[in-house]
Automatic annotation (TrEMBL):
This is Tryptophan synthase beta chain-like PALP domain-containing protein. InterPro entries: Cys_Synth/Cystath_Beta-Synth, TrpB-like_PALP, TrpB-like_PALP_sf. Pfam families: PALP (PF00291). It comes from Vannella robusta. Residues 1-117 form the Tryptophan synthase beta chain-like PALP domain.
């Protein structure tokens, strides 16, 4: 969780930046609207105890749209050969946004993305992965 990771990393280097993210349509951590979204695994609609305990270590929360998260989730397997979940797709989108900022263009700085989930559990999620690109014939449907 962001609580454990931020505690460890800030303990090693207090200057490190911890950036979280949440769905644009359910952005309770950053004071946005509360609503439904398609980013499975994040955005519960309330501030979790983990989040409350780590707010002093989180430097920024960025919102990501469902479409951006889903598009990146589908793109990563094609480009990198890694089957990731929607939360990981959202994380890559956030990293790409950070890399557009002047402060992250310094070659001495790094943006690290943690893939929080595998895409394997989402192979049967309707509409997530194009059926013509992934063989799901071995999966049980019941």
């Amino acid at each position: 969780t962001i609580e454990g990771i931020s505690e460890y990393l800030k303990g090693k280097n207090p200057n490190i930046k911890i950036i979280g993210f949440e769905p644009t349509s359910n952005a309770c951590f950053s004071g946005g609207p509360k609503g439904k979204h398609k980013i499975i695994g994040i955005g519960p609609g309330f501030k979790t105890d983990n989040f409350k305990r780590s707010t002093d270590r989180i430097d920024e929360i960025i919102t990501v749209t469902d479409d951006d998260a889903l598009e990146h989730t589908r793109r990563i397997p094609r480009i990198e050969g890694l089957l990731v979940g929607v939360t990981s797709g959202a994380a890559v989108w956030v990293a790409e946004q950070l890399l557009q900022r002047p402060e992250y263009k310094d070659p001495k700085k790094a943006v690290v993305v943690i893939f929080c989930d595998s895409g394997e559990r989402y192979l049967t999620t309707p509409g997530l992965f194009p059926a013509d690109n992934i063989d799901t014939s071995y999966l049980a449907t019941e």
